[in-house]
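Notes from the 1:1 (GR / supervisor)

We went over the backlog. Supervisor wanted to see one worked example end to end before approving the batch request, so GR pasted a single chain during the call. The sequence is below; no edits were made to it. Supervisor asked that the structure be written out right there so they could see what the output format looks like.
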Amino acid sequence: NRALALAPDDTTALINRGETFLTLKRNDDALADFDRVIALDPQFTLGWLGRANVLMLNKRVSEALEACRRAVAIEPNSVKALSQIGQCHALLGDAETAVAFFDSALAIDPADQVALENRIFSLDFCEVGYAQHQAARSEWWRRIGSRIAELHPPDHTNDLDPHRRIVVGYVSGDFKEHSAARTFRPVLQNHDKSQFEVICYSNSPVQDEITETFRAAADRWRDVMQWSDDQLTDCIRADQVDILVDLSGHSRGSRLGTFARKPAPVQVTAWGHATGTGLATMDYLFGDPVMAPPEVRHLFTEQIYDLPCLIIIEPPPAGLRSLEAPVTSNGYVTYGAFTRANRLSSAVLDVWARILRADVSARLLVKDYLLGDAAIQARLLADFASRGIAPDRIDLIGPTSRDEHLAAHRLIDIWLDPFPNGGGVSAWEALHMGVPVVSKLGNGMCSRAGGAILSAIGMADWVATNDDQYVDIALRSTPDQLRTIRHQLPDLIAARCAPSIYTRAVEAAYRTMWQAYCSGRQI
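Structure output shown during the call:
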């Protein structure tokens, strides 16, 4: 602000202030600065990329893509521009094109962390398997992580008492209102503090009401967003953390550069983006036998430790649930998919269209924040129309409040899990709201989350292994059966995946890992 008071038309200062506004979630102010840059210098690539970034965050993805194209036209070899246009394609559900743009960026700069991590994330939406997913993660280690590790050999002085109170450090960019927070907050809030001391290392510029609940659950709290990896490493060692838990993986807000330095004797990746990291310094990955079958575990750099389920979520407010299946009053089945629109692959649309053609009275309700973009709505309806499904059988809902999102489950009878990238938190939300889920097992961690969750609560008969089974499962239930399931689901979930039960399993894992370390062996 002081710089711009002296030179109001300084484009570099405007770019820097716009980026700062973005970090502070002041999107409108950021967009004003980037648009001012474009007005002053239409050939300044960073102005267009800043505009695109804001538009992506504001769910105006089609406009963001156009801004990215303007940037690439000005600077065809800009790694940042190529990466950002890849991110737009990823949001629009074209993961293959997104990966191609990330590959183009990496051909120019093989160690660009943004392109590497976005490539990892987008591959999870492609029809590829465990081997390619884990190879992409190992590439991050080869190009970035291993070089960090060479310069920072581990140096641990922790008390090797296998029975003492264990110090657990959690590192996340999502100690705030975020879907990932719902997967690990139940664990932090249910820890036995007589056996575990909890330290939270928060890597987020945003603090909200959810942040305060995490702060209350922690014995010690550290705001580390502006710390270097060296500073964070020194703090973790000074805190004498025994087990350091990564909650972000390769998603936004991660601190894998810190984990590459091995600041704690035992390191675990879990929950927030629990699909493997590729880091040789990461000892364990929390998983389950459905997500990671025995025959693929050799592909992971981490040792997989099985929990009752890969993830859980905290139960939503009970007052939002309805015990009545909508089919009872509607006279027809309403299928639902409350998930990111970029998960709606051509393959899954083919299968969903088969279901709707087989039951000509059924309807489909799709809900996602990206459906606030009229261009994305039109494209999705056109995709269904090309498969013989009239637009009037498809209902679309854009962004809503959290409570409105949960309450909208009252409108659907059966939740359809997309593939190859399925729902985790969204599948759990449907089940907690009393809605059964149809899922299909794929060939990667992200394509088996729904199947793992259903298996964990005793509903493996809702899990398909191919398209035909998926269609059959979706069509087989009577109104009475759907009503019965709504009544049974809370007890099924509570018996197997209640937060207290799940946390005891996590704590048993930590104790086993720590005892193994103290004895100088592996589990």
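Supervisor's comment: The radius of gyration is 23 Å.
Batch request approved.
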